Amino acid sequence: MPDDLRDPKPVKIRCDACPVMCFIADGKSGACDRYANHAGELVRLDPLTVIQSGAKAVAFLDQGDNAQDWDGDVIQGGRDFVTAVGAGTTYPDYKPAPFIVSQEVEGVDMITVVTEGIFSYCGVKVKIDTDRHIGDERAVVRVDGEAIGHVMTSEYGSKMLSLGGVEHLTGGSKKEGRVTCDALLRLCNREPVEVTIDGGVAMVVEAGKAPIINGVPEKLMRVGCGSATIGMFAKQWHGHVDEVVVVDDHITGVLTEHEAGKGLDMTPSGIRVNGRRSTPGRYFQVADFMVPMVPIGLATGRFGNFMNAELWGRASDAPWATVFPTDPLQIARHPSQLYEMLLEGVLLFLVLWVYSAKPRPAGAVTALFGIGYGCARTFVEFFREPDAHIGYLAGGWLTMGMLLSIPMIILGIAMLVWAYRNDERGVKS
């Protein structure tokens, strides 16, 4: 059969109603099941709302001085009234104007622009400060018998509820969606909401107030921080014990060294705990882990400066001196960008990498970076042309780069001394 007599191969068409942008074959629908390919034409599967002529519908009436009783007639009641209210958008997108319905009324083009609020995909997390068991993880949370969410894993000593979401708001029954929507609105408006948890408790939750669990208001808060525990109960322990040791997953400490113990004039017991005494030590751990990678970024940036022929050095007769095309004087200069790349980038990276290969006190690697960067930048400033709008600050050699590097060096040295003096990796007595 000649090619020109064969049926053309069905062509897929793209639906761009949402970011998924499905390619839909003839006779098939997209992922949302709202649009389909009908003989090469994109059609909407869910119909619009059509109010037939003569149907009972209340039109928008004038208010105030122009108020009038409704005469039972819809606007332009002699014709069908087409609307897209409730049609919404396609999953998963939210657009300012996703759907437009148009019709002609007495020679005038009338359009209805419809949007679907993003509320249909929203959720609310409820944090409940209690030490009581409220329900197993993944247990269903209900309001008026309808599922609106589930119990999450406890976080920082508090129970957590995950409520709402598209499955409860739009994926279940209409009653489930209405109840979920109403519960979320009330919670967000600081109104009390009574919930029940499958296999757990009945509870009233309200923003800013203690939960009421099985009819009993919660009076005890679960303490999730060792330092807070020391401070809150120091007065009760004082006079009954010589020392209190608190150990949890991110802090270790003793009462007599805590500010609460000092405030009570407790005599130091001499006990030192093998562990990190405060959370800031963990911050330094993260910084020490990341800092050795910083020189790589610095080296890349300085090489970019060289390739862009910017931030060049002072005049030089060195064999490797470079004439930069952007230099109006067209004289040979120090390639100070490469000096910085080698010192701030390559050399500093190697120093930090070797230094951090062995366990160091928290903050020591970060301190060494500050010292190394400050020294490298100060050295290169002797070869770098100062910014034209600033020039030399003093003596024909002091630059702003040097002046800004000095505090970094001093701070780095002070931090290094502090790190080693407060090294808590060993046991002390």
Instruction: Specify the overall morphology.
Output: flat
Number of helices: 9
Helix percentage: 25-40%
Low-confidence stretches: 86-98
Q: Evaluate the radius of gyration.
A: 35 Å
Total of domains: 4
The tally of beta strands, per DSSP, is: 18
Biggest sheet: strands side by side, in what order? 9-12-11-10-13-14-15-16
Main β sheet profile = 8 strands, antiparallel
Elements, N to C (H/E):
EEEEEEEEEEEEHHEEEEHEEHHHHHH
Can you give the mean pLDDT?
Answer: 78
Terminal Cα separation, in Å? 97 Å
Q: In percent terms, what proportion of residues is strand?
A: 15-25%
Structural class: alpha+beta
Q: How would you characterize the overall build of this protein?
A:
- This protein is an alpha+beta fold and 429 residues long.
- The chain folds into 4 domains: 10-49 and 76-116, no CATH class; 120-217, no CATH class; 226-278, no CATH class; 281-421, no CATH class.
- 28% of the residues lie in helices and 18% in strands.
- It has helices at residues 166-169, 174-188, 226-237, 259-263, 280-290, 294-307, 336-355, 364-380, 400-421; strands at 13-14, 23-24, 35-38, 41-44, 49-51, 81-83, 99-105, 108-114, 123-128, 140-143, 146-155, 158-164, 193-197, 202-205, 212-213, 216-217, 245-247, 252-254.
- The strands form 6 sheets. An 8-stranded antiparallel β-sheet has the order 9-12-11-10-13-14-15-16. A two-stranded antiparallel ribbon has the order 1-2.
- The protein is flat, with a radius of gyration of 35 Å.
- 23% of the residues are buried.
- Mean pLDDT is 78; it is low at 86-98.
